[in-house]
Specification:
Elements: E1 12-15, H1 21-29, E2 33-34, E3 47-49, H2 56-60, E4 67-68, H3 75-78, H4 80-94, E5 105-108, H5 112-125, E6 133-137, E7 147-149, E8 161-165, E9 172-173, E10 176-189, E11 192-204, H6 217-220, H7 224-227, E12 245-247, H8 248-257, H9 263-278, E13 292-300, E14 306-313, H10 322-339, H11 346-354, E15 395-396, E16 399-400, H12 422-427, H13 464-467, H14 477-482, E17 486-487, E18 493-494, E19 523-524, E20 527-531, H15 535-541, H16 547-562
Helix pairs in contact: 1-10, 9-16, 15-16
The structure holds adenosine-5'-diphosphate.
Residues 103, 134, 136, 140-144, 146, 164, 166-167, 179, 221-223, 297, 299, 309-310 line the site of adenosine-5'-diphosphate.
Length: 570
């Protein structure tokens, strides 16, 4: 039965077997209904969510109102060996100064001789100072099959593995190792449009870090999937080292209380994300109905340098503790806002009425063709900063100490967003070809009425620049660094936005924006636009992605931020 012919068509989600239950929960809370294969037809869904990759046919048969949660061919960064290979290639092209954020890696057995040479060189050069390595099977995840070694005689493997230099001097909190799970949304590869979520997770090992016990995975790995089997794991404690995770807000609050200027750290992380995505962006087919949520795992070392450990395809959305609930629910809500659906799907409904959109083949295998305007529209609301509790601690050398930090249990209030108009879908029905997608730049015309429709609880997005409680994108590093934590009217601590690029968000209303200069919104919920971040990168991301210019701009930004007189630089 074609849904929605008689009345307003509700938004419908389709979950592939094994998809996270949280996706279902959040979408149901937002008023969506679940697709029923027995009752409904292929075209009766709006969002298809899979934890695994889609088939080519899924991309080929997509209808104008439908979206997929994966872009094709992102394996170039989400598989450990592909990531290592691609980063090495970029290092060769653009130099090791910028691409120095990933520990040296070798893919074995192929690179065994190279690894042996490096291992021997290190042994000779670092007399007395031990060098450690970590071995990871390339096709496993969640810490499975990983071990750490110092002596090559302990290296054994029976499948393809990467052997990576082990960051043996991680930053510790109260003696425990931790890493950051940073959530990244690639809303589009053509033009490249990257958002980083301000919330994220800090995942702790459950036993104290100790280089004399390399076999103790509970001290060396930070995966929850490993640590939850540890003797000290419990979800119910507030202190570090007992199986807890922190929200990123709590971590930032902690850094703030330690008197640490966090901004350079976040800028480096932003750059890591951009530089990593630039390695694959030109090779990703244009597919405007897709978006990708990635989990970047970042380890911070004792000198505060962030290292990229890996990029996770379909980052875990299971709920192990209160921090998971806060972060992942908020994340998914913001992600769905970024997709820009309206409450009901008039596009699908009218598509059925006109019977014009029955399985057209919009995409070719070489270059997926556009359906005209990207289906990902722009919500109009202002974010609400999330409350977080205050933390305390004392610092000592590179081990920071946490005293007692409570979990925040704040909730995101959802806005309504507009959906694309049928007219623009109709305009694009002919399937314009994308030469790296110039035609993908067609933008939806806004429906002025819809800004006032529904029970929107957040003020319009366009008001951010006038009333935002935090410094906007134009602020300088020093201005941000000076920003105190603020007390909101409801008495909760808020942290400033981590955004330092000088990039002006678009001026609303949308109908004044021509397709040539339309810019993505600088913020959607807690997703902050990190690429493009200035006019040069905006231009470089249009038509065919100009990777060289993009990399140079990241370099310039890094240099400018490293300068002590950064705020004076124009
Ligand atoms: P998986 O996909 O199995 O989770 P990761 O590469 O994320 O593999 O590694 C798992 C964990 O091992 C990380 O979360 C981190 O705690 C630790 N780890 C991985 N690589 C390194 C490294 N090079 N140096 C230090 N710790 C590492």
């Amino acid at each position: 039965m074609a849904a929605g012919v008689c009345g307003p068509a509700p938004l419908v989600f389709r979950l592939h077997e094994g998809s996270p239950g949280l996706v279902r929960e959040v979408l149901l809370e937002r008023g969506w209904v679940e697709y029923d294969e027995q009752e409904q037809e292929e075209g009766d869904w709006n969002l298809y969510w899979r934890a695994s990759a889609f088939r080519n046919a899924d991309y080929e048969n997509i209808l104008p109102w439908q979206r997929l949660n994966h872009h094709p061919k992102t394996v170039g960064i989400t598989r450990k060996d592909c990531l290592a290979r691609n980063l090495k290639r970029m290092k060769g092209t653009f130099g090791s100064v910028l691409y120095d954020f990933s520990p040296t890696a070798f893919i074995l057995p192929n690179d065994y001789t190279k690894f042996l040479a490096e291992y021997t060189k290190n042994r000779l050069e670092n007399r007395g100072r031990l060098v450690y390595w970590i071995c990871k099977p390339v096709d496993l995840s969640r810490g499975r099959g990983i071990f750490i070694f110092e002596d090559i005689k302990d290296l054994t493997y029976d499948s393809t593995v990467i052997v990576q230099r082990y960051i043996s001097d991680p930053l510790l909190i109260s003696g425990y190792k931790f890493d950051l799970r940073v959530y990244v949304c690639v809303r589009s590869f053509h033009p490249l449009t990257i958002y980083i979520h301000q919330e994220g997770l800090v995942r702790f090992a459950t036993e104290k870090y100790n280089l004399t016990s390399l076999g103790n995975l509970y001290a060396h790995l930070t995966n929850t999937s490993i640590n939850k089997f540890g003797p000290f794991y419990t979800t119910d404690k507030e202190r570090v080292g007992q199986g807890c995770k922190w929200t990123m807000s709590k971590f930032r609050c902690f850094l703030h209380n330690q008197g640490i200027d966090e901004l350079p750290l976040w800028q480096r992380i932003n750059s890591i994300v951009t530089l990593t995505l630039l390695t694959i962006a030109p090779s990703i087919p244009c597919s405007p109905n897709c978006l990708e949520l990635l989990g970047f795992d970042i380890l911070i070392d004792a000198s505060f340098k962030p290292w990229l450990l890996e990029v996770n395809y379909s980052p875990a959305l299971s709920l192990d503790c209160p921090a998971d609930v806060t972060v992942k629910k908020g994340l998914l809500n913001d992600l769905f806002d970024l997709m820009g659906y309206k409450k009901v799907d008039r596009l699908r409904q009218r598509g059925y009425l006109r019977q014009r959109y029955r399985h057209p083949s919009y995409f070719s295998s070489q270059c997926l063709q556009t359906i005209g305007s990207p289906m990902l529209l722009f919500p109009r609301f202002m974010y609400e900063s999330k409350p977080d509790n205050q933390s305390q601690g004392e610092s000592s050398f590179h081990t920071l100490h946490d005293d007692n930090v409570g979990d925040s249990d704040d909730k995101v209030t959802l806005p309504l967003v507009e959906t694309k108009q049928i007219s623009s879908a109709r305009k694009s029905k002919g399937g314009t070809t994308c030469s790296s997608c110039p035609s993908c730049a067609l933008r939806p015309k806004p429906n002025p009425k819809s800004t006032t429709a529904g029970n929107r609880t957040r003020p319009p997005f366009s008001r951010i620049s006038e009333h935002a409680p935090w410094p906007e994108a134009r602020d300088t590093e020093s201005a941000l660094a000076r920003q105190p934590l603020r007390l909101s009217p409801v008495g909760v601590w808020k942290l400033p936005t981590i955004q330092i690029q000088k990039y002006k968000p678009p001026t609303y209303p949308w109908h004044n924006i021509s397709k040539e200069n339309s810019k993505p919104p600088s913020r959607v919920g807690d997703f902050v636009l990190t690429f493009p971040f200035n006019e040069a990168t905006f231009k470089a991301s249009q038509s065919e992605l100009d990777v060289k210019t993009a990399v140079q701009e990241v370099h310039r930004l890094m240099n400018r931020l490293a300068s002590p007189h950064m705020h004076k630089v124009k």
